[in-house]
Design brief:
Blueprint: E1 9-13, E2 19-24, H1 27-30, H2 36-49, H3 109-125, E3 129-132, H4 142-153, E4 158-162, H5 167-173, E5 179-183, H6 189-195, E6 198-201, H7 202-211
Parallel strand pairs: 1-3, 3-6, 4-5, 4-6
Antiparallel strand pairs: 1-2
Helix pairs in contact: 2-3, 3-6, 4-5
């Protein structure tokens, strides 16, 4: 159950990185009472679905050795053994090893939406959300220009959400591993939780609000 809390504010910047003042963040996105249980459940499901499940080890039937018994059954003073594919021998099979499998878990859409709002409200309450008018970088030296603006804002790492798919924005930030670049349409709950800090454009803020407008909230 999501309960509304007081209005949260964030710092607002121009596209050149100049501070404009404070802006009130949408209460429907950043003004709910965080639910730790929902966040934990959504994180667990996200991590499960990210597993590849391609690990594979060889069993006794996968090894191409002679099936001959390595030594006689009795009167050797040692333990009884069959062929050399047993797990106890060097270069033998793996006992109960992993095999390829599908890792997947489902979560109701309402809980997924609630987890997103809880995550956004958590970082907003911790003053880790910043808003910028827009992200526009012009050639040449896109990355240098982007870094200069982000350093001016004081945003050294985190999640950046923008609205339009701008080729120059992607080119400017693709080699900067400290930033995760997403649009308002494809950003996920796990992106918010993993990064913990958010820089969002004004247009993306409106798009994100529209995206979660349909979520029913129990008051």
């Amino acid at each position: 159950m999501l309960k509304k809390i007081k209005m949260v504010k964030a710092l607002m910047y121009t596209k050149t990185g100049v501070k404009k003042g404070e802006i009130e963040l949408p209460k429907s996105l950043f003004g709910v009472m965080p639910n730790p249980f929902v966040i934990a459940q959504a994180v667990r499901v996200s991590l499960i679905n990210r597993r590849q499940g391609t690990r594979c080890t060889k069993g006794r039937g996968d090894l191409h050795y002679s099936g001959k018994k390595i030594y006689r059954q009795k009167h050797t003073g040692g333990a009884r053994h069959g062929d050399r594919t047993a797990a106890g021998f060097r270069k033998g099979a793996k006992a109960h090893g992993p095999k390829p499998r599908i890792f997947e878990a489902a979560i109701p859409g309402k809980i997924k939406g609630s987890a997103m709002l809880s995550a956004l409200s958590t970082i907003a309450e911790g003053k880790r959300v910043k808003v910028i008018d827009s992200l526009n970088f012009e050639k040449p030296k896109l990355t240098q220009k982007a870094l200069k603006i982000l350093e001016k804002i004081g945003f050294d790492k985190g999640l950046i959400i923008y609205s339009n798919i701008d080729k120059n924005v992607r080119l400017a930030l693709r080699n900067l591993q400290q930033y995760v670049l997403k649009t308002a349409k494809d950003v996920s709950f796990y992106d918010v939780v993993k990064c913990g800090r958010l820089l969002i454009t004004s247009e993306a803020l409106k798009d994100l609000e529209k995206r979660y407008k349909q979520l029913k909230q129990n008051k």
